[in-house]
Design a protein that fits this description.
The complex is a heterodimer of chains A (336) and B (514). With 336 residues, chain A is an all-alpha fold. Chain A contains 14 helices and 4 strands. The longest helix of chain A is centred in the middle third of the chain and has 27 residues. The longest helix of chain B has 16 residues. The chains are: A mainly alpha (336), B alpha/beta (514). Chains A and B meet through helix 9 and helix 10 of A and strand 1, helix 10 and helix 11 of B.
Chain lengths: 336, 514
């Protein structure tokens, strides 16, 4: 007769005050990795080794910062590796073409840089427009453009390698190998991109809107957020960052081929996920992504330095780490 | 309490409820319902929104368990463990949103979960034959191999019925089967219902269309506020009787004193406004300090109309805000014109459930909290003010909004909308599923807005709310304005008559006002 027997389903939130491992997890893992590194090889923290590791991780790092925004707003971009190869190839062709008329000068390099940035923005816009205006799933769109960019660079290189004019290469070289106060340029650029990214994500309406769209697109739409514009912007931003990463990459080898940037997209996505950004979107943190990038590159570096485990197992260890990171994420959402 | 059934009903009931009660937490929605359903009988269950029809149907078909009383099948007490359990015993509920796998073929859907097999493999030829036979029985020409997604709604309904029959349903319960059907499709459905009835299937269904009930049901049961009002043979009740039974409720003194009569100044003028597929040629005006109600049944196009007005749906027609013709293409445009819309779907469209209160509160008016960067301190202050002004009760500040009670969520949603300080607030179903105390707070708040000279459109399916709060009421049905009521004309009877389409002078009255 009388009710009230059924347990009142009042939401009683667990007032958790314990240490949030999912927030600190990536940092702890990185710290652990550094300690292990120091123990295994005294050279690990040497200036030379650190510069080498950080400079090489800067490409993935710069891209991963952009990827953080795309993933936070509920998107994905599989095309960034191919995009980087395509941009690198086109930059080289443009610069080589300009050498006869302009001579090997800074102007040529500047044109190359402009080409890289512009092409990145364009490629990002193509992805973004197909996702927003075309209403096609991001996975499908970028799977498609991944193939397109990759095959375009293969075609441009005629199946071989595109090499930058040697005289231009000399001028361009300091972009990767130079630096100030002993810090290499790629590291500086990565740091600047990461800091700006972190601020944009945390402090600006754009960052807030990304998280809102990734959490619940409908709520964002009903709250006067210009969903399509924000989405498109994340892809353009990522494109531009791919352009910047490529600008740093080209002087390193001075060439581009169909194998340039292979699997960069997966490394970037892995770094984002390890850093604690939710793959389904709704929550992202740029500093986490930076930590994720460092974890991935230190692992590779350690395996090369120490003879304990074969460096061929690098991929396996990275895989384990990615899966662990996602399990931590899931536990957080279950405890929520 | 109930009116006794006078006509002799000879057969014994196949499914019945004895003093069935149902509560969700502290909220009781069914009170000691007695109900009998007999073979070969079409039984209509009617009542206002929230009267408990759906809950009763779900309780009878195993989707909900009664918290009091018992359910009898063939005179024996039963406790259905689940909807599937009830189905196994011949009691099938057809949901309003169909339970079909869109990508699968018709035959695969009909036999889903009970596929005939030959060894380890599906016996597709048998499935096809049986599906064809079932569909032929229903006199439809649906091809068993079509994918369900390609079928029109009426055919999907037939597939649901075929699925029910393949399960040897003796009791078929349908939740508003005609709400989504055209007149012709409804005809087809009624012919099938007649046929099933002759074969001794017991049919229980709900509908808001009283003429339809009059036409096809043998017996009618009216529920009101979770109570059984009357069960009678349809022949003994006129359509007006039914409406009266549905309504006859006393108004509890829930409502604040009405705000003073609105000023003469018109703040919003909408004319010839249409929203694709949902609303047609709607015209109305809103004055400063006025609370304008939009009444009608669920699905009458009110929500879509309002979404069209604030640019959430493609729409056309003339809209004047403060006498100026405006083109609102997005909620942002609307907000710039001082118009804000509060969605009816607070969980799906109103709030981000897995975020804290602060970002939720400021999302709509975020530009008010930043120069270049978001000013966290100002946000926190706004949250302080909002929790105080709207009496939002949260265990702690950083709680995820999904953990708040419905009432507190609703208050947060109100606060979020009010951050942009709109002149014209469109509030859609603000009290759905929340307790009386919070309802009262929300009513007071709406009246206060009007007193401050803001204007308010209140979309509500709770008539008492409309009557208790509004200066003027527009009644909609099937996307059209059926009539406009003001002052003394605002009562449940008039609203129901317009909403049910029983009153045909509505349009005239509306015109006469201008």
């Amino acid at each position: 007769m009388t009710l009230a027997t059924s347990a009142a389903r009042q939401p009683s939130p667990p007032a958790r005050r314990r240490i949030n491992f999912s927030a600190l997890g990536p940092l702890l893992a990185l710290a652990l990795l550094i300690v292990i590194g120091m123990l295994l090889n005294p050279n690990f923290l040497s200036y030379g080794n650190l510069t080498n590791v950080l400079a090489r991780s800067a490409f993935i790092g710069i891209i991963a910062v952009g990827m953080t925004f795309v993933i936070t707003s509920g998107g994905l971009d599989l095309s960034v590796g191919s995009m980087a190869a395509f941009i690198a190839g086109t930059m080289i062709i443009v610069m080589n073409l300009l050498v006869p008329s302009l001579g090997a000068s800074w102007l040529v390099v500047l044109c190359g840089l402009g080409t890289g940035l512009l092409l990145g923005a364009l490629a990002g816009a193509v992805n973004g427009l197909l996702v927003t205006v075309g209403r096609i799933e991001a996975f499908i769109v970028t799977l498609g453009t991944m193939g397109i960019f990759r095959s375009l660079v293969t075609w441009l290189a005629d199946g071989g390698t595109l090499s930058l004019d040697f005289t231009v290469r000399e001028i361009y070289r300091p972009f990767y190998y130079g630096g100030i106060f002993g810090v290499a340029w790629p590291i500086i650029v990565f740091a600047i991109v990461a800091i700006i990214g972190e601020i944009v994500m945390r402090k600006t309406p754009f960052g807030r809107h990304c998280a809102a769209i990734g959490s619940n697109e409908q709520v964002a739409r009903y709250s006067a957020v210009r969903v399509d514009l924000v989405r498109l912007s994340t892809y353009v931003l990522l494109g531009v960052l791919v352009g910047i990463a490529t600008i740093m990459y080209v002087p390193r080898l001075g060439s581009a081929s169909s194998s340039t940037g292979v699997l960069w997209e997966l490394e970037a996505i892995a770094a984002v996920i390890i850093g604690g950004t939710v793959l389904k979107g709704g929550f992202g943190r740029v500093w986490g992504t930076v930590v994720g990038v460092l974890i991935l590159s230190f692992i590779g570096n350690l395996l090369n330095l120490a003879a304990l485990v074969s460096p061929y197992l690098n991929g396996a260890i990275q895989g384990v780490i990615i899966i662990l990171a996602v399990m931590l994420q899931r536990e957080r959402s279950a405890a929520k | 309490m109930g009116v006794a059934v006078s006509e002799g009903r000879l057969t014994s009931p196949v499914l019945s409820a004895e003093k069935v009660s149902k509560s969700f937490g502290p909220v009781q929605v069914l009170f000691h319902i007695d109900f009998e359903l007999r073979p070969g009988e079409v039984h209509a269950l009617i009542g206002e929104n929230g009267a408990g029809k759906s809950t009763l149907m779900k309780t009878l078909s195993g989707y909900e368990r009664p918290t009091g009383g018992r359910i009898l099948l063939d005179g024996q007490e039963v406790q259905f463990v689940s909807g599937a359990d009830a189905e196994d015993r011949g009691v099938v509920l057809i949901h309003q949103e169909f339970n079909l796998a869109d990508q699968l073929s018709v035959e695969a859907n009909i036999f889903l979960g009970r596929e005939p097999r030959r060894g380890p493999f599906l016996d597709s030829s048998r499935m096809r034959e049986e599906a064809r036979a079932l569909l032929a029985e229903l006199e439809t020409n649906v091809d068993p191999q079509t994918r369900v997604m390609h079928l029109p709604v009426s055919d999907k309904q037939m597939v649901e019925i075929a699925k029910a029959l393949s399960r040897k349903a003796r009791v078929l319960i349908m939740d508003e089967p005609t709400a989504v059907l055209t007149a012709n499709e409804s005809r087809t459905l009624f012919r099938q219902i007649e046929r099933l009835k002759r074969e001794g299937v017991a049919i229980l269904y709900t509908s808001h269309k009283l003429e339809e009930v009059k036409e096809i049901a043998d017996v009618v049961t009216v529920l009101r506020d979770g109570h059984h009002v009357v069960t009678a043979p349809t022949s003994e009740l006129s359509v007006d009787d039914m409406a009266r039974h549905m309504v006859g409720r006393e108004l509890v003194d829930l409502y604040p004193e009405k705000a003073p009569q609105p000023a003469a100044e018109t703040v919003l003028e909408v004319s010839g406004f249409s929203v694709l597929r949902y609303a047609e040629d709607v015209s109305f005006t809103l004055k400063r300090g006025e609370i304008l109600g939009f009444a009608g049944l669920v699905g009458s196009g009110r929500t879509e109309l309002m979404e069209g007005l604030v640019g959430l749906r493609p729409a056309h027609g003339e809209v004047k805000v403060h006498g100026e013709v405006v083109h609102i293409r997005s909620p942002k445009d609307a907000e710039r014109r001082g118009v804000a819309y509060l969605t009816e779907d607070r969980k799906g469209r109103g709030l981000i459930l897995n975020q804290e209160m602060r970002p939720n509160l400021t999302l709509f008016g975020l530009d008010r909290f930043c120069n270049i960067f978001i000013d966290r301190r100002r946000e926190e202050e706004a949250l302080d003010q909002a929790t105080q002004r709207f009496d939002i009760r949260a265990p702690h500040r950083r709680i995820h909004v999904g953990h708040l009670s419905g009432g507190n969520q609703q208050k947060l949603l109100l606060a979020k909308t009010m951050v942009v300080e709109p002149d014209i607030v469109i509030i859609d179903e603000p009290t759905r599923g929340i307790d009386i105390g919070t309802k009262q707070q929300i009513y007071n708040f709406v009246e206060d807005l009007a007193r401050q000279g803001k204007s308010c459109i209140l979309v509500s399916s709770e008539m008492a709310e409309i009557i208790g709060l509004c200066h003027r009421v527009v009644v909609m049905r099937s996307g059209r304005v059926m009539g406009e009521l003001s002052a003394g004309d605002i009562n449940e009877n008039n609203i129901v008559r317009h909403a049910m389409g029983l009153s045909h002078n509505g349009g005239g009255r509306h015109d006469a006002r201008h």
